[in-house]
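Teaching soon. Invent one.


***
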Amino acid sequence: MSNLIDVKHNLKAANRSLKQMDKAVRQAVLSSINRATQRSKTEAGRKVREKYVIKQKEVVQTLSIRKATGNALQSVITSKGHSIPLINFAVAPKRRLKRAPKVLKAAVHRSGMKKPIPGAFIATAGTHLGVFMRTSKKRLPINELRGPAVPSMVGNEEVREHIQQTYGEEMQKRVPHELDRALGRLKM
């Protein structure tokens, strides 16, 4: 009879250990997903900066992360934003001069040269300095010229592939580390 009680007690202990291990593995995967997502966000900013004439800060500000939770083991990086004023990219001249240049030049991509924009000029509208262009022969109205939006930059195929590759590499690195950490804490 004592053997039967001993086996039942060992089964309960084994079952409890398996539940603890399951919980630890789930937590390790969750931590790995969140860490890899954070790294992907940083890499997105770097890669966009390599390709476009824009500050990494402006890219990262538009990115938001929905972290993985216990119920849903998935995370999402979302980029929301409007088109960026052309003055924030490479523009020559960068400020308003007393004597306007013949043609204003601007570049959005790092690889490309500054291209001339005939009829464009730099002006201050209220407190905002920008690159403007007249819509007709009359003095007003004028429209501000804008570059691409950050979501379209992040959506660039080369950038997306780099982000996915970074995510995969980070997951391969983080999962074993997080498993060792979580399983090392278990009390058997």
Residues 2-51 form the longest helix (50 residues). The two ends are 26 Å apart (CA to CA). The mean pLDDT is 89. The chain is about 50% helix and 20% strand.
